[in-house]
């Protein structure tokens, strides 16, 4: 990991240092556009082709049904079932608290406005399954979809080498009451859910994280189809702000936890302490040696860096420009820092709150904006699965009170039919 001194960095240096997953020659875009066009034109046939090309599996059917899921899920041990249930319960509890009925507001006497939630009818969930299969992501997307009350939930996940999904994905499907999982991964899955194929329904909104191909496909279909997306949730990243109260072994473990996701993940340490920086680097080297995914994590770590700052305020300034998916405040004094956080997907406070708890089971959602999209997007929540429909109701007193102002406002815009829709009611005495 390269080390930079914040005081020596210009604004331009900070801007270029905080860029990630750029595709300067548009290689990923071009490839993904081809995949999308092929799926749009050839439907299921394209999905069989891509399963062979990218997943190296020859499929004879594009989905697993309930009986097959039950058979596969039988391999989940009681201890694993219990852990999945713990995660399910905490995620459910936290997400259910997000469903709130709003008060009606009388803006003028006789004029009442309010909002009601309506579930998005057809949603598509993408569950990553490339270098690691992520049943936790299935919980993170399926639970809020169920709480919101979506009518149709389409689930796509890449086929594994045996042409199936693994036992944990099957088990979570059954836990969520979902009885079909499509064996489709990558950008082809996004295209299938956006356009629909002979087998897969077109959905209104696509959710879920994924690698650069998945994320690029989501951003393309967002601007080219009527299907919406949750957010760009690409390669995982973490930024840790640490002072001298941090524990280097903990900091190193948290950096590696995100680094092991993929070679394009990023793990950044911003610290006021050179001693902590040096000790963390030594710990990273030590811990890397025993990780089964060391090969992947090492590449991500090589693509990551440390920034030394004079103060925690400077560290927070850097973090706010970076806008990390995950922000860890590895300091006992975190309470004084939270007000300064402007841009972050999910925040982990103090030295005893590893990011992994949010990945799996604390209750918060792990589907979060990456590549600095945390500047404008929130992570997935129940809100992501609903629309908020506004209502208004006017009494006789209401139209008398508000009508004259609306007539004048319509005149100001030269829209006489608008004015008339009010006048005919005011004059209807
Ligand atoms: N931001 C978040 O909220 C969040 C959450 C969980 C995981 N993630 C990220 O999700 C990603 C998961 O990536 P993954 O690769 O393991 O699984 P994935 O399911 O996202 O991608 C696998 C699919 O990518 C396609 N693919 C692979 N190589 C390709 C190529 N050369 N050309 C075209 N398509 C290709 C294949 O179809 C394959 O099925 C990781 O980067 C991880 O960090 C992010
Ligand atoms: N850290 C990922 C989000 O970037 C989520 C995850 C799933 N499993 C493990 N981690
Ligand atoms: Zn993770």
Describe the model.
The chain has helices at residues 11-17, 27-42, 44-55, 66-73, 78-96, 135-148, 167-175, 186-195, 212-224, 248-259, 274-288, 294-302, 312-322, 355-360, 396-412, 416-426; strands at residues 2-5, 63-64, 105-108, 111-119, 122-126, 152-156, 181-182, 205-207, 228-229, 237-242, 266-271, 305-308, 326-330, 346-349, 386-394. The longest helix has 19 residues, at 78-96. The protein has 16 helices and 15 strands. The strands form four sheets. The protein has a six-stranded parallel sheet, sandwiched between helices. The chain has a four-stranded parallel sheet with strand order 6-5-8-9, sandwiched between helices. A three-stranded antiparallel sheet has the order 3-4-15. It folds into three domains: 2-21 and 235-363, Rossmann fold; 27-233 and 382-386, Rossmann fold, CATH 3.40.50; 395-426, no CATH class. Helices cover 44% and strands 16% of the residues. Helix 4 crosses helix 7 and helix 5 packs across helix 6 (135-148). By secondary structure, the chain is an alpha/beta fold. Zinc ion binds next to helix 10.
């Amino acid at each position: 990991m390269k080390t930079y001194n914040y005081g020596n960095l210009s604004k331009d240096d900070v801007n270029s240092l905080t860029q990630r997953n750029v595709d300067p020659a548009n290689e990923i875009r071009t490839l993904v556009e081809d995949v999308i066009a092929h799926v749009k034109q050839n439907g299921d046939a394209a999905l069989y082709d891509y399963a062979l090309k990218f997943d190296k599996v020859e499929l004879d059917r594009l989905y697993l049904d309930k009986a097959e899921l039950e058979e596969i899920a039988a391999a989940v041990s009681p201890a694993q079932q219990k852990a999945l249930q713990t995660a399910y319960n905490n995620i459910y509890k936290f997400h259910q608290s997000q469903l709130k009925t709003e008060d009606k507001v009388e803006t003028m006497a006789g004029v009442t406005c309010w909002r009601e939630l309506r579930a998005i009818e057809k949603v598509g969930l993408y569950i990553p399954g490339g270098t690691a299969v992520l049943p936790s992501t299935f919980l993170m997307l399926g639970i809020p979809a169920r709480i919101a009350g979506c009518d149709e939930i389409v689930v796509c996940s890449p086929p594994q080498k045996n042409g199936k999904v693994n036992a944990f994905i099957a088990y979570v499907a059954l836990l969520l009451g979902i009885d079909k999982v499509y064996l489709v991964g990558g950008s082809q899955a996004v295209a299938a859910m956006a356009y629909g194929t002979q087998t897969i329904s077109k959905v209104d909104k696509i959710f879920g994280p994924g690698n650069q191909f998945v994320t690029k496909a989501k951003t393309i279909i967002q601007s080219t189809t009527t299907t919406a997306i949750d957010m760009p949730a690409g390669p995982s990243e973490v930024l840790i702000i640490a002072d001298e109260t941090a524990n280097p072994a903990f900091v190193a473990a948290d950096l590696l936890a995100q680094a092991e996701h993929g070679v394009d993940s990023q793990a950044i340490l911003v610290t006021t302490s050179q001693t902590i920086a040096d000790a963390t680097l030594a710990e990273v080297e030590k811990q890397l040696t025993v990780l089964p995914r060391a090969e992947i994590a090492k590449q991500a770590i090589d693509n990551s860096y440390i920034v030394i700052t004079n103060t925690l305020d400077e560290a927070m300034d850097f973090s706010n420009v970076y806008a990390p998916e995950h922000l860890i405040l590895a300091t006992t004094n975190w309470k004084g820092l939270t007000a300064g956080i402007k841009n972050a997907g999910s925040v982990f406070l103090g030295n005893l709150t590893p990011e992994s708890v949010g990945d799996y089971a604390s209750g918060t959602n792990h589907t979060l904006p990456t590549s600095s999209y945390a500047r404008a997007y929130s992570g997935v929540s129940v809100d992501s699965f609903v629309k908020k429909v506004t209502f208004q109701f006017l009494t006789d007193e209401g139209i008398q009170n508000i009508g004259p102002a609306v007539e004048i406002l319509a005149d100001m815009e030269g829209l006489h039919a608008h004015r008339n829709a009010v006048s005919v009611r005011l004059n209807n005495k």
